[in-house]
Fold these 3 entries.
Entry 1:
Amino acid sequence: MPITNDQVAQRRFLRALYADAYYPDAVVDRGCDILLRLCERIEAERPSDLASLYALTAAATEEFNVLQEAFEAADSEIETVAREEIAEDFAFIADAYGFQDADVEELIAGRDW
């Protein structure tokens, strides 16, 4: 399903991670895929409130939890720079879909990175 939100369609997710050789592009690509799937789910399911949005972001956060293993296998990790970049993209997504009041900590509450 192609993204219909113009802001999201034009966004290059995880930009800072691509700019740093510490993060392998192939693993970062998987992170971008997680974020794009989140956007697709938001567009398909059209959450009507923050609780519904948080349910969708919880699933995406869990995918990042699993992705942490791939970073570690590539001698990398989701550390401070990556955490901030991922959180910023979650906040951007919430804002782009009309959830300006979303709490970034709630968006990624289930993280273990």
Entry 2:
Amino acid sequence: MKMIIATIRPFKLEEVREALTSIGVSGLMVTEIKGFGAQSGHTEIYRGAEYEVTFVPKIRLDLVVPSSLAEQAVETITQTARTGKIGDGKIFVLDVAQAVRVRTGDINHDAL
């Protein structure tokens, strides 16, 4: 099993969710986050005063998929979330040693 952690632009969330569902991903967790990287923020004006926003709003997706689906899920996120501009996000893939469904006690692939 693989855990995929992806950061994407907020307006891409629904499109990415639909694309992942269409390839067989059965669930994911979504968190609103803020961060910076190459995009390094931007300038905004609030009540006539200009200030720098160094942390940019992003969405973090956490999903655990069978190893056989991981590459396709990463490709789906990459293609769907891409705008071609700085700040499109990052994807990390980690090995998962064990998964347990709390309600039933199912483990590993059965828990997904």
Entry 3:
Amino acid sequence: MRTNTLALDQARARLAQQAAAYAFGVPVEEINAPTRGRARAALARQAAIYLTHVAFELSLNRVADAFGRDRSTAAHACHRIEDARDDPAFDAAMEDLEACLRSAPGPDLIPFRMTQ
């Protein structure tokens, strides 16, 4: 994978982590922790992985690389969130998060010009 692609995938993952941290009420540091941690943090991490996969249409391999995890972990996270979406309230919250992330402008969409 090209370095630029990985860096962009990691930026997208960070955005999803921030959104999940906010929505689940957990510090982003807990989402980034190398271990499972509290159940709520683990669910928020799984949601961030799912959101990165769905909202940004990244393959599970790319999502796993962006999160520093393996593909089976990313697949498990997506299955866990898909199962949880049977709950209407959880499903509505995930839909809102997906829409939010999908509407975020990409790094190449905002013109940047330095004025002197």
